[in-house]
Design a protein that fits this description.
The protein is elongated and about 75 Å long. Helix 1 packs across helix 3 and helix 4 runs antiparallel to helix 5. The protein contains five helices and two strands; from the N terminus they run E-E-H-H-H-H-H. The protein is mostly helical. Strand 1 and strand 2 form a beta hairpin. Among the domains are: 41 residues, no CATH class; 45 residues. It has a two-stranded antiparallel sheet with strand order 1-2.
Length: 139
């Protein structure tokens, strides 16, 4: 494979001093046109590879946290933490009020799940042992 066909991701941080790099030269492999100047990179170019992969999985799964948990084999708090890190990495600040709303929603879902399990025991749809296993799994 010749050098022109080799594809490497653009690095955005200087390996020597750790400051942001700028793109100053663009070239076309087809016609050999070269353009020089100061060009900006996307906010996403400054994210670590792990965070870019998380964004890819997040978008692919339409933000469905449960599906993301399964695909990445991580817990809800880890998904939330990674999403927060991406938000901060893109230059936005976190809204503490939103965190409280999310926590309250999660608590409500857990209460509803527990109530559903108790109802299934009462209706003799599941045994107490099965209920204990479901509660251990957090379902």
């Amino acid at each position: 494979m010749n050098q022109r066909n080799k594809v490497n991701p653009v690095i955005s941080v200087c390996p020597v001093c750790k400051h942001d790099l700028k793109v100053t030269k663009l070239s076309c492999d087809h016609c050999d046109t070269v353009i020089e100047g100061n060009f900006t990179l996307s906010k996403f170019n400054y994210l670590e590879t792990e965070k870019l992969y998380f964004i890819e999985v997040f978008v692919k799964n339409r933000g469905n946290i449960k599906t993301i948990e399964k695909e990445l084999n991580i817990s809800y708090p880890t998904v939330k933490k990674m999403l927060d890190e991406v938000i901060v990495g893109l230059g936005y600040s976190l809204d503490p009020e939103l965190d409280n709303e999310e926590e309250e929603k999660e608590k409500q879902e857990q209460k509803a799940s527990k109530a559903s399990i108790l109802e299934k025991i009462a209706n003799k749809e599941i045994s107490v042992l099965e209920a204990v296993e479901l509660l251990k799994k957090g379902k």
